[in-house]
Specification:
The chain is of the alpha+beta class. The chain has a single domain, classed as Aminopeptidase, CATH 3.40.630. Helices cover 34% and strands 37% of the residues. The protein contains six helices and seven strands, in the order βαααβββαβαββα. It is globular. Keywords: Transferase. InterPro entries: Acyl_CoA_acyltransferase, GNAT_dom. This is Spermidine N1-acetyltransferase.
Length: 167
């Protein structure tokens, strides 16, 4: 059985993140339009006081990341997740990591709402979010331009009461 956990990202794991964010497929999934450099990433992290940058570990190996951007006033968090190690995709690791993250968000942090955005062509991610109980709130039409093409993003959310019914 694979052991999945999430932990605060350590500086030694930043290089994995930079390598993954340099991958064209991951860039497309997140709408990244420029090269991400280590020093810029470290500077960005230092300017995010309400953001937690977490590593997804599978049997102790760093295989992906979760970013949680908290809005304490509204008891809400914006979530981003990706499995950067392509050999670990499609194995349920993202699903396990999401379940751990949702428990952390709703139980430990006592948030009321979690929301995320996903490009409408990212079917595996959409399937995961819907399987976990996220509700589609709407579509941001032509919200992101990449390589000269406008793309739609879907907005999904889950409330703490919905999570409690599911889990």
């Amino acid at each position: 059985m694979e052991e999945v956990c999430i932990r605060k990202q350590e500086p030694s794991q930043y290089i994995n993140t930079i390598n993954w964010l340099s991958n064209k497929q991951i860039q497309r999934s997140f709408g990244i339009t420029k090269e991400v450099k280590l020093n810029e990433h470290i500077e960005w992290l230092s300017k995010q006081p309400n953001t937690e940058f977490l590593s997804i570990l599978n049997n102790g190996l760093h295989v992906g990341n979760i970013v949680l951007d908290f809005n304490e006033r509204h008891e809400s968090v914006f979530l981003q997740i990706y499995i950067g190690d392509f050999n670990c995709r499609g194995k349920g690791i993202g699903s396990q990591a999401m379940k751990i993250a949702l428990k952390y968000i709703f139980v430990d942090k006592q948030m009321h709402r979690v929301h995320l955005k996903v490009f409408e062509d990212n079917v595996p991610a959409i399937n995961l979010y819907e399987k976990l109980g996220f509700i589609k709130e709407g579509t941001e039409r032509d919200s992101h331009k990449m390589d000269g093409i406008f793309r739609n993003q879907l907005l999904y959310s889950m409330l703490s009461s919905e999570w409690k019914r599911e889990y």
